[in-house]
Write a structure and sequence with these properties.
With about 260 residues, the protein is of the alpha/beta class. Helices cover about 30% and strands about 25% of the residues. Strands 6-5-4-3-7-8-10-9 form an 8-stranded mixed sheet, with helices on both faces. Strands 1-2 form a two-stranded antiparallel ribbon. Strand 7, helix 6 and strand 8 form a beta-alpha-beta unit. The protein is globular, with a radius of gyration of 21 Å.
Length: about 260
């Protein structure tokens, strides 16, 4: 390993030197890293996920470690802020689109032992990742992970693997609804059969569901958007703004109406 580090320091990014540096990085990722012992889980926004940091990772240049295998304290920062602002102790929370399970864990922490979180995830492999994050975090609220596609899948990451289809109208009533379903959010909002206290939506103009359309649907259902920000950390903010990927937090309009004067 000292030899690999010395090679990295000796050769810069120009010409053959750059080729050698990339080759050494490839060798570390392909052959050395898999044999290194596991140090701990990777943490996204402080939540342990189903990825691991290897013991050798701390001894090599950061660029040698794939980006998704490094801790990311700003992962899904906009969604995490929205959950912190709107989930209360005792809330029932429904999440459509589980991902790495980070927002599921955050919602369960916020809801507490008297609350409940139900996460719908359409891809078989990602169901396991959500379940692993919940297992590692052991949040106080009970969590159910449902292998199901809500509505029609628009941009499913991974194979459905026998996922059942749940119509949006069949979602269980909840206090807070989070939608991160890669373009299917408009269908869910249009067919929702109940009115949560708050709806948190990641919009996907890049998948044909622009923020303006989602705003209109929320308004039609009697919601007021109280926050609107790019769904990314600083490193990917430009991409999210260019592709219209944002996080909207909306609350029922009547909750913002002051009581009549006595």
């Amino acid at each position: 390993m000292r030899l690999l580090n010395r090679l990295h320091e000796t050769f810069d990014a120009d010409g053959a030197r750059g080729v050698l540096r990339r080759t050494v990085r490839f060798l570390y990722r392909r052959f050395v890293r898999p044999l290194s012992g596991t140090a701990r889980p990777v943490r996204y926004h402080g939540v342990a996920v189903d990825l691991v940091v290897k013991r050798m990772d701390a001894r090599v240049p950061a660029a040698w470690v794939p980006e998704d295998l490094r801790d990311n304290p700003l992962y899904e920062a906009a969604q995490m802020r929205a959950l912190a602002a709107h989930v209360r102790p005792g809330d029932d929370v429904v999440i459509v689109g589980g991902g790495w399970g980070v927002t599921t864990v955050e919602a369960a922490r916020r809801a507490g032992p008297t609350g409940r979180v139900t996460t719908f995830e359409g891809a078989r492999e990602w169901v396991g990742r959500v379940e692993r994050a919940v297992q590692l975090a052991a949040p106080p609220a009970p969590v159910e992970v449902v292998h199901a596609v809500v509505g029609q899948p628009r941009s499913l990451f991974g194979e459905a693997g026998g996922a059942r289809v749940v119509p949006p109208s069949a979602l269980p009533p909840c206090d807070v609804l989070e939608l991160d379903c890669e373009g299917a959010e408009a269908e869910v909002l249009a067919d929702l059969s109940f009115r949560p206290r708050a709806i948190l939506v990641e919009t996907h103009g890049v998948f044909g569901t622009p923020t303006s359309h989602v705003r209109g649907l929320l308004h039609e259902r009697g919601y007021v958007v109280v926050t609107d920000e790019p769904a990314a950390d600083d490193a990917t903010r430009g991409w999210c703004e260019a592709n219209d990927v944002r996080v909207l937090s909306a609350v029922r309009s009547e909750t913002l109406t002051p009581p009549p004067a006595r």
